[in-house]
Design a protein that fits this description.
mainly alpha; about 160 residues; two-stranded antiparallel sheet; 2 strands; 5 helices
Length: about 160
């Protein structure tokens, strides 16, 4: 199953440093609803489901790999904007470092899929909010491309959920 849209990711071409913009992006990089959280959550689920539902486990692993690519892109973007891409969320609780407490450890497949759909919807809303407030067109283009993958992930989870009922 394809877990990534067949459109290349735009090149990162930052014209000038903007630490404030970088900090805004860091919430999607390593906040509670972030690429880092998605990677850990989907890998946890993949491992849990490996024996029970191998096909779903493989899909979750592939989605986690796409989220890793998003994490890499955001990290490079944050760096180019002038901030080190450390795993913290400057928006929440005065610079809270990423934590495994952000991962949902549900083990029921149906509940996992519902939670994953909610997480993808939140991520899409979060990216769309960033796109709305960020003025740098090159950054917006990158975020819009990531949103395409997130929408695909949402569709995949919806289809998997439908297949259970």
């Amino acid at each position: 199953m394809k877990c990534k849209v067949d459109i290349p990711y735009p090149k990162i071409m930052i014209k000038k440093k903007n630490p404030q913009m970088a900090r805004m992006i860091m919430h999607s990089y390593a906040g509670d609803v972030s690429e880092d959280t998605a990677i850990h959550q989907y890998m946890f689920q993949s491992i849990v489901l490996q024996k029970e539902t191998k096909e779903v486990a493989e899909i979750l692993e592939q989605i986690a790999i796409v989220e890793m690519r998003h994490l890499q892109i955001l990290g490079e973007l944050i760096r180019e904007l002038g901030v080190y891409p450390i795993y913290l969320d400057p928006i929440v609780d005065q610079h809270e470092f990423w934590s495994a407490k952000y991962v949902n450890y549900e083990v029921n497949l149906k509940e996992m899929l519902i939670l994953n759909m909610e997480a993808e919807q939140k991520a899409i809303l979060q990216y769309n909010s960033l796109i709305h407030v960020i003025e740098e067109e090159d950054v917006k283009t990158i975020l819009k491309r990531i949103v395409l993958d997130e929408r695909l992930h949402l569709e995949i989870f919806e289809k998997l959920l439908q297949s259970l009922t």
